[in-house]
């Protein structure tokens, strides 16, 4: 079991779990054992070996380490130990247990500026800038949105940043900008989390992608899971055995030379979903380093053009993705809430540069 655990720090919890699949229950569930991770299989889950099921969901774990954990009796399904060849069924609850409790990560309040676009007694909506990590985790223990919220709400007697029943309802990547909803009360988080789970929330993103997207609109469907060759990336598994069901709808907003501005609507919310799905159809996000968008993927071989693109990379030094709109039903009033945010200046300047290029085509 030690071999399995050697690179599985408790502080990596939020890198390992996807919000829509996890239930925060670190309590002791059987004598002498504590639950560290829990995953609930989707209703449409096909029969899949538990070691394959877990390796797709756990950031640092290899299949061999998961098999060792199963041999040690540390993998439970519906509360009972299973071997690594157990086949996960729909709605199975798969847990990893250890002989020690989870160490909780202390949330330190930090005075970090927040762009709050709406707030009431139950929730607030934040427009997150690119570069801000959402939650403390591996490599980012301070300076996150959660630390900023802990400071902003430090005088709220009902808000405890360490209480998993409060706080972030969903997340966006560090270098993605845009709107997030935060729950200030347990009832609000439970209600909003259910809306995300039931896919009734309304979320649209703007993205600049490489290449000319031919169809004015389209639907991308393909299971998303950890890339089998690079665990830092996600990948699409069209056959459905690996990963989790994911659907993205896109609409072309503007074609600009060798790039396209698109609006993406999430039907599901998987890790890196838009980034992975757009790459899957041949249109990697502009300057998305993790997925190869920081290379010149389309265009000419002229030196002037190459310099133009390098200047564009410098203007927007991150993936060109912004969570522009967010809609949900207010958990207390039942009112339909809808928020729209401006495209941040780095993306706006980037789009304008490509618009000018598309109109002049001087390079």
From TrEMBL:
The organism's place on the tree of life at top rank: Bacteria
Pfam families: PseudoU_synth_2 (PF00849), S4 (PF01479)
A GO term for molecular function: rRNA pseudouridine synthase activity
Reactions that this protein is recorded to catalyse: a uridine in RNA = a pseudouridine in RNA
PROSITE patterns, A to Z: PSI_RLU (PS01129), S4 (PS50889)
Active site: residue positions: 173
Keywords assigned by UniProt, alphabetized: Isomerase, RNA-binding
Bilayer-spanning residue ranges: none
EC number: 5.4.99.-
Positions of the RNA-binding S4 domain: 48-113
GO terms, biological process: enzyme-directed rRNA pseudouridine synthesis
Family: Belongs to the pseudouridine synthase RluA family.
Stated role: Responsible for synthesis of pseudouridine from uracil.
Record's protein name: Pseudouridine synthase
Organism: Parabacteroides chinchillae
């Amino acid at each position: 079991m030690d071999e399995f655990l050697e690179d599985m720090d408790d502080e990596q919890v939020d890198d390992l779990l996807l919000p829509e699949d996890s239930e925060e229950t670190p309590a002791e569930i059987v004598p002498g054992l504590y639950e560290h991770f829990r995953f609930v299989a989707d209703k449409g889950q096909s029969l899949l070996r538990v070691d394959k099921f877990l390796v797709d969901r756990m950031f640092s774990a290899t299949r061999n380490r998961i098999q060792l954990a199963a041999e040690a009796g540390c993998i439970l399904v519906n509360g009972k130990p299973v071997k690594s060849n157990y086949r996960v069924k729909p709605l199975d609850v798969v847990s990893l247990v250890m002989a020690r409790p989870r160490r909780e990560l202390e949330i330190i309040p930090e005075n970090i500026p927040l762009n709050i676009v709406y707030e009431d007694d139950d929730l607030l909506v934040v427009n997150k800038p690119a570069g801000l990590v959402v939650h403390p985790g591996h490599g980012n223990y301070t300076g996150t949105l959660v630390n900023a919220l802990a400071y902003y709400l430090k005088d709220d007697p009902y808000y405890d940043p360490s209480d998993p029943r409060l706080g972030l309802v969903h997340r966006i990547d560090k270098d993605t900008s845009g709107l997030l909803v935060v729950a200030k009360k347990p009832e609000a988080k439970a209600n909003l989390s259910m809306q995300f789970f039931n896919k009734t929330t309304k979320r649209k993103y703007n993205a600049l992608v490489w290449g000319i997207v031919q169809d004015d609109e389209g639907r991308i469907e393909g299971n998303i899971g950890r890339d089998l060759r690079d665990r830092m990336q996600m990948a699409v598994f069209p056959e459905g055995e690996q990963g989790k069901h994911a659907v993205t709808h896109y609409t072309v907003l503007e074609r600009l030379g060798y790039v396209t501005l698109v609006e993406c609507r999430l039907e599901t919310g998987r890790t890196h979903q838009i980034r992975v799905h757009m790459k899957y159809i041949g249109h990697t996000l502009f300057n998305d380093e993790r997925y190869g968008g920081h290379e010149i993927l389309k265009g000419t071989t002229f030196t002037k053009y190459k310099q133009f693109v390098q200047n564009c990379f410098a203007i927007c030094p991150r993936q060109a993705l912004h969570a522009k709109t967010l809609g949900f039903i207010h958990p207390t009033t039942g009112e339909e809430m809808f928020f729209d945010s401006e495209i941040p200046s780095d993306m706006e300047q980037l789009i304008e540069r490509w618009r000018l290029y598309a109109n002049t085509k001087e390079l």
